[in-house]
Amino acid sequence: MEYHIKEAAAKVGLPTHTLRYYEQQGLLPFIKRDENGNRIFSESDIEWLEFIICLRKTDIALLELRKIVELTQEGDDTIGLRKQIFEKHREKMMEKQRELDAAFRKVETKIDYYDKLEQKYQEELSSKA
Predict the structure, then answer these.
(1) What global pTM score does this model have?
(2) Which of 6, 18, 21, 52 is the right S-S partner for 14, CB 3.0 to 4.6 Å?
(3) Are residues 50 and 92 in the same domain?
(4) Max CA-CA distance within the chain?
(5) What is the pLDDT of residues 90-128, one digit of tens each?
(6) What is the pLDDT of residue 114?
(7) Would you say 65 and 80 are in contact if contact means Cβ atoms under 8 Å apart?
């Protein structure tokens, strides 16, 4: 199946200007165009967009994404280099996860503290009634 830019954008949940930006940044070099110059997205293009979206949620830099695309275009001789980029990114993600876990524990501690304050306050109200 093929999609025009509006359909592709709707399918992946991004605005059309983001798809155009990704193309300008070299992240979508595989996009074909019809006889009028309109972008035509294939199912594999949609899958690639979904992968980009996933990686962007993990805060991967556009520069790293562009490098992955460039290496992919160079062929299978670059598999090791692409893997290294993902391994490096995984390490960054793991560090970020550790930071988030620590922040989550602090928030949980604060909620527990407020639960105890609330309970104490309710007990005080009940004893006055």
Answers:
(1) 0.79
(2) 18
(3) no
(4) 81
(5) 999 999 999 999 999 999 999 999 999 999 999 888 888
(6) 98
(7) no
Domain containing 114 equals 78-129
Q: Are residues 31 and 83 in the same domain?
A: no
Domain count, the chain: 2
Kind plus residue range of the DSSP H or E element containing 40: strand 39-40
Query: Is residue 71 one of the residues assigned to a domain?
Result: no
Query: What percent of the chain clears pLDDT 70, i.e. is strictly above it?
Result: 100
Can you give the pLDDT at residue 125?
A: 86
Give the N- to C-terminal CA distance of the chain in Å, as an integer: 70
**How many Å apart are CA 24 and CA 62, to the nearest integer?**
11
3-state class (DSSP) for residue 39: strand
Residue owning tokens 């009634």: 129
